[in-house]
Specification:
This protein has 197 residues and is an all-alpha fold. It has 10 helices and no strands.
Length: 197
């Protein structure tokens, strides 16, 4: 019963329902009534937490980061930079196998970012955080002598766009290779390009 759920559990329920609907129907075609029906909560309960569909969508960006990729930010000081980059590929593939729709949500973030400055700013902050994480891993590899000197900003962006190949795979299935094969091969290729000769 909804009454027995904590505030966090209810918000999670609302955001998961909204995420699924925004992916399936798109932001524009999803109504608050749709979210009410999907979440199983009352309209009053939803408006208690979110003033509007746009407010809910803005909250969804943080929810997407936290709940779609919960293992992305786990630190393991004992792993090399290469091992950490390979673990990112594993996290992305695992999410792709179990919750493919989260990659399609990213398309909604991009689409609305193009038209809404606040969504664009919130999305930019998310990507800056992810890029910063990748830069730290690359810096770790440089300091340890595993990687050559490089422009870590450009290389971090290359890692991110490689991992975002999951978006393509979420829409189209490739006939010749799997998502895992794509990720493994391309992360290995990137690591090889980062390593000292």
């Amino acid at each position: 019963m909804a009454e027995n759920k904590s505030k966090g559990e209810r918000q999670f329920q609302i955001l998961e329902a909204a995420l699924e609907l925004f992916v399936k129907k798109g932001y524009s075609d999803t109504s608050m009534n749709d979210i009410v029906n999907k979440s199983g909560l009352s309209k009053g309960a939803i408006y208690h937490y979110y003033n509007s569909k746009r407010d809910l969508f803005l909250s969804l960006i943080g929810h997407w980061e936290t709940h779609a990729f919960p293992n992305l930010y786990i630190k393991d000081e004992n792993k090399s930079a290469s091992e950490i980059l390979k673990s990112f590929a594993c996290v992305i593939n695992e999410t792709f196998q179990n919750r493919r729709f989260v990659f399609l949500a990213e398309l909604e973030f991009w689409a609305l970012s193009n038209r809404d400055e606040e969504v664009r700013n919130r999305t930019r902050l998310l990507y800056e955080k992810i890029l910063s994480l990748f830069e730290k891993i690359l810096h770790k590899g440089i300091v340890s002598g595993e990687f050559r000197e490089m422009n870590t900003g450009k290389s971090a962006l290359t890692i991110m766009t490689t991992l975002q190949g999951a978006i393509w795979f979420s829409i189209f299935q490739h006939q010749d290779f799997t998502m895992k094969e794509y990720l493994d091969e391309n992360i290995d290729r990137l690591i090889n390009s980062f390593q000292k000769l």
